[in-house]
Amino acid sequence: MKREMLVVLTTAVVGVVDVRLAHADALPDPMGGVITIDIAADVEYTTPIGAGVTAVVKKGVGTATLKADNSSYAGTMAIEAGTVKGEPAAFGKPTLLEVKSGGCADVTSPGKLNATLVKIAGKGPDGGGALRYSGSAQSTGSNFLNALELTADATIFNGGRLQFTPINLTL
Prior knowledge:
disordered N terminus; mainly beta; seven-stranded parallel sheet; 15 strands
């Protein structure tokens, strides 16, 4: 089920602001074990990545916000364009989380991003980072990443305070 919500904010100074957020309860159906999210708008997904899925590919300039706990997901995730956003458990435990130039992985709360390897390139779709921590709380305990590889020049945005040491870093 897909719903579109329109919020109109009015002020005397700014005028009218039109904000649209699409909401889709379910992720797209996997084709050959691959879920491809190709969106131009910002969409929230509330269902988990299902059994039998081996890869998630994000295309399109929109932001896919993952709201479900995907801790049991252990395939790969490639962000080719746009943003995938969520708490660490929303990303699952992929063997590889690859953010290509023009893509962004945005982690919204403290905790460990449980990918075996995170590869990043570029500055993200809006120049704000290919890998972002947009949460405000300080992370405590374990390191944020297992291993990070920069496949090209890359930007990391750390909005809160995360622990990055010790980390396996490949340049």
